């Protein structure tokens, strides 16, 4: 029975992640190679297959950056941040973000910016009109941070018993992550004129899909990247 519960819990976690991230593409191809899509800050290439993303619309403009947290805590609460494990989940279920920042602050480049990563899914931002429902994948850059939220925020994904197995040092975000995120945001904003350094353009997944998502959550300190919580 315990094994069955574990299997169901892990499956629910994965299905929840997929439903949150993927919106079918209707966009035509966009020619790659434009300088504005190439990061100037130091990144470690770990490109996912194109099955995990799609072409952006030929007239698409990057308008937002969406922040997320991720881990493999549902399966390995004692070792939740193995990069290979996380990327295998992305590849298996064809979800993605453009970048993932590990606990040491290394920025791993997963999807080229001229492609739309499967990270935002269905939802909308409160300050935008109905014509922008369910479309943020196509006009945003997704950044994952290896992090775990509060027990309440993680309750949709893992049981209380499993959450208690997580090392307290693995909960929340690291200073190295904040520094790297600030550097990456500055780079993105310098290359995409429509992305301003404010809370209308730098958003959390929990703002876009509050009924389904809780990341980056209450443990994320917006002040550390020069912004404030709304």
Based on helices, strands and strand pairing, what is the structural class? alpha/beta
* Multimeric organization: single chain
- Portion of residues in beta strands equals 5-15%
Number of strands: 8
How many domain modules?
1
Main sheet characteristics: 6 strands, mixed
Q: What's the shape?
A: globular
- Count of helical stretches: 6
Q: Rg to the nearest angstrom?
A: 17 Å
Domain N-acetylmuramoyl-L-alanine amidase: 53-217
Enzyme class: hydrolase
Organism: Bernardetia litoralis (strain ATCC 23117 / DSM 6794 / NBRC 15988 / NCIMB 1366 / Fx l1 / Sio-4)
Pfam families: Amidase_2 (PF01510)
Topology:
Layout: H1 2-21, E1 44-45, E2 53-55, E3 64-70, H2 83-93, E4 99-101, E5 107-109, E6 115-117, E7 140-146, H3 151-154, H4 160-163, H5 175-191, E8 202-204, H6 205-208
GO molecular function: N-acetylmuramoyl-L-alanine amidase activity
Organism: Bernardetia litoralis (strain ATCC 23117 / DSM 6794 / NBRC 15988 / NCIMB 1366 / Fx l1 / Sio-4) (Flexibacter litoralis)
Signal peptide: 1-21
Q: Would you kindly provide a brief summary of this structure?
A:
This protein has 230 residues and is of the alpha/beta class.
Textual characterization of the structure:
This is N-acetylmuramoyl-L-alanine amidase. Residues 1-21 form the signal peptide. One of its GO terms (molecular function) is N-acetylmuramoyl-L-alanine amidase activity. Pfam families: Amidase_2. It catalyses: Hydrolyzes the link between N-acetylmuramoyl residues and L-amino acid residues in certain cell-wall glycopeptides. This protein is an alpha/beta fold and 230 residues long. The chain has one domain (2-23, 37-225): 3-Layer(aba) Sandwich (Lysozyme-like). 26% of the residues lie in helices and 13% in strands. It is built from six helices and eight strands; from the N terminus they run αβββαββββαααβα. The protein has helices at residues 2-21, 83-93, 151-154, 160-163, 175-191, 205-208, and strands at 44-45, 53-55, 64-70, 99-101, 107-109, 115-117, 140-146, 202-204. A six-stranded mixed β-sheet has the order 1-5-4-7-3-8. A two-stranded antiparallel sheet has the order 2-6. The termini are far apart. Residues 1-20 and 22-33 have low confidence and may be disordered.
């Amino acid at each position: 029975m315990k094994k069955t519960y574990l299997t169901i819990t892990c499956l629910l976690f994965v299905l929840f992640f997929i439903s949150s991230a993927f919106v079918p593409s209707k966009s035509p191809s966009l020619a790659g190679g434009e300088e504005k899509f190439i990061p100037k800050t130091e990144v470690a290439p770990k490109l996912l297959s194109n099955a995990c993303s799609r072409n952006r619309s030929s007239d698409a403009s990057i308008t937002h950056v969406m922040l997320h947290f991720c881990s493999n805590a549902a399966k390995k609460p004692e070792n939740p941040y193995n990069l290979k494990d996380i990327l295998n989940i992305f590849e298996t279920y064809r979800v993605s973000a453009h970048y993932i920042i590990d606990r040491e602050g290394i920025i791993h480049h997963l999807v080229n910016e001229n492609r739309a990563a499967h990270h935002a899914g269905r939802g909308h931002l409160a300050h935008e009109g109905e014509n922008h429902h369910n479309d943020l994948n196509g006009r945003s850059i997704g950044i994952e941070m290896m992090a775990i939220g509060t027990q309440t925020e993680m309750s949709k994904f893992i049981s209380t018993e499993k959450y208690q197995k997580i090392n307290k040092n693995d909960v929340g975000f690291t200073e190295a992550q904040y520094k790297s995120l600030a550097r990456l945001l500055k780079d993105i904003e310098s290359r995409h004129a429509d992305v301003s350094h404010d809370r209308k353009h730098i958003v959390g997944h929990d703002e876009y899909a509050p009924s389904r998502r809780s990341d980056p959550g209450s443990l994320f300190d917006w002040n550390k990247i020069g912004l404030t919580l709304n």
